[in-house]
Write a structure and sequence with these properties.
It contains 6 helices and no strands. The protein is mainly α.
């Protein structure tokens, strides 16, 4: 079931990109409105991905999922995020070719999509070689959105998986354990050796 859901999510990402490309080609909205539409879609998808990551983190912790399986789930989610942003960058470039630096005008359609997916991977992994940089405000906003989502995903979610698993298991373990009573002053006095000078 989970595999089918992830495949469906990949398909939705590609279909949304395809329909956005059709809207751009048909000039359905003005240039400015179309830029806002692309940014809004990216923000909505970011909220979805952030929520999905949190949901999977909580479920994996609650079910005591093995770490390698959780990492595989997160890898799939991260690849969806990277693909989604790569296609969003491509839409911005189609709308305004000067949105990003160092994009060769001779690139074919497939090369452009690859270039922006490459840029998305660099942003998400915090490498950012600087060979492609955003130049317009919409491109900078989109880049900042991906970097913030990557930060939350990698730093908070992945690093907190073990801590969350332990905190969920901890109340159960604490209630099952028998705690020794606190030492009283008399017991401490009995256990303390008296040294005479």
């Amino acid at each position: 079931m989970l595999i089918m859901r992830n495949i469906a999510e990949y398909l939705v990402i590609v279909v949304v990109w395809f329909l956005t490309q059709k809207m751009i080609a048909a000039a359905s909205l003005s240039h400015s409105w179309m830029m806002l539409f692309v940014l809004s879609l990216a923000w909505i998808k970011s909220l979805f991905f952030g929520g999905e990551n949190l949901r999977q983190l909580w479920k994996a912790s609650r079910e005591n999922m093995p770490y390698h399986r959780f990492m595989l789930l997160m890898l799939v989610n991260m690849s969806q995020i990277i693909l989604s942003f790569g296609l969003d960058y491509h839409c911005l470039h189609v709308l305004r070719p000067d949105s990003f630096s160092s994009i060769d005008p001779a690139y074919e359609y497939g090369e452009l999509v690859f270039e922006f997916c490459y840029y998305s991977v660099l942003n998400f992994t915090f490498f950012g070689y600087g060979d492609v940089t955003p130049h317009t405000i919409p491109a900078k906003l989109l880049t900042m959105t991906e970097v913030l989502l990557a930060f939350v995903t990698v730093i908070f979610l992945l690093s907190d998986f073990i801590s969350l698993k332990e905190s969920i298991a901890s109340p159960k373990a604490d209630s099952d354990a028998v705690r020794p009573s606190a030492p009283t002053a008399e017991r401490i006095a009995e256990a303390t050796p008296i040294v005479d000078k």
